[in-house]
Amino acid sequence: MDRRTFISGLAIAGGTVASACGDMSGSSTSPAAPNINRGVKRLRMVTTWPANFPGLGTAANNVAEYITAASGGALEVRVYAAGEIVSAFEVFDAVADGTADLYHGAEYYWQGKSPAFNFFTAVPLGMTAAEIMGWCEFGGGQQLWDELAGQFNIKPFQAGNSGHQMGGWFKREINTLDDFRGLRMRIPGLGGNVLRELGGAAVTLSGGEIFPALQNGTIDATEWVGPWNDLAFGFYQEAQYYYGPGFHEPGSCLSVGMNRGVWDGLDADHQAIVQAACRAANNVSLAEFTYQNGIALDVLRNEHDVQLRQFTPEMWDRIGEISEQVVADTGRADPFTARVYESYLTAREKMMNWGRISEAAYMAQRERVLGGQ
Per the structure, how many domains does the chain have? Predict the structure, then answer.
């Protein structure tokens, strides 16, 4: 593909290059063609994902390819899977200290550094994919995220979204609230806190560790993403009961974090390319997950006899009560997290009011009219 055509494509995919998530939104010009004579700047991206894993690993690959292509090779990004340079949960520190230049991952993995990071991936009963994009782009979320990550020498971007996630894979049916007691489940972030309040034991594992843990009985259940990624990992082989929808991650934002010194050292045109590449990858990711989840769900049901289940209304009522309390407690952890929490709540309320009379109402009527087809 011609580089100028590619840059134009990035601008279209992102709305405009200037409005890509970041701190250059005041600009109204497209990036200038980079001067190749400045030489090649090679960047290393570490990720929390297995190599080339569908949707997650490939979102990281897309960011790297878009940056490299749009810069005419002046920025050359190489992707390293979890474990190739550092382990999955060490990528944040690797970028913060300059061991690597960028990471691709999920911000709630860094909640030990600040609970505010949870709000930039997903929280129970939180924002959908479209809503978290809206908050970051237009509701002040990006500015708060920049301030938060900046404390750790990192510049963050939205760079993928898996959309709504399923409730998880279970080796046994979950029919009552009592069935959560003693349940050992892989579930990170604040969703894990909700499970603990239900009497279960939440375990945090990277993607590559989940299937062996199911297989050897270390865990009884797991959430991961949705049908597309879950099929790829083969969870149906160890747990036949597939519950949805999930309460814990209604629209999970994936992120790129760039070492702040590396970011500040880029020319303005290269900064614009990085921003636009992340935004384009974000849009492509959500589109791909939305389509591929539908295809994979058919395979799981029709070829692997997976049993679809839903949590009961009684469970949802209790999960809802706990979720709001867990998120509120997190939001009060410290003054900065409180600012993030209040901004998040305000944006969620406004977008829920619109969603209630738009997509939610439409989806209910579409299901009523077409659901039997």
Answer: 1
Q: How many Å is the Cα radius of gyration of the chain? A: 21
Query: Is residue 270 one of the residues assigned to a domain?
Result: yes
**Average of per-residue pLDDT across 133-154:** 98
Answer whether 184's CB lies under 8 Å from 220's CB: yes
In a domain, 305, yes or no: no
pLDDT digits (tens, 9 = 90+) for 150-173: 999 999 999 999 999 999 999 999
Instruction: Give phi and psi for 252, each to the nearest 5.
Output: -85, 120
CB 203 within 8 A of CB 219: yes
Per-state percent for the chain, helix, strand, coil, to nearest 5: 55, 15, 35
Strands 168-170 and 102-105, bridge-based pairing: unpaired
Contacts of residue 274, Cβ cutoff 8 Å, sequence gap at least 6: 67, 75, 157, 258, 263, 266
Handedness of CA 148, 126, 252, 133 (dihedral sign): negative
Higher pLDDT, 21 or 127: 127
Residues 6+ apart with CB under 8 A from 26: 18
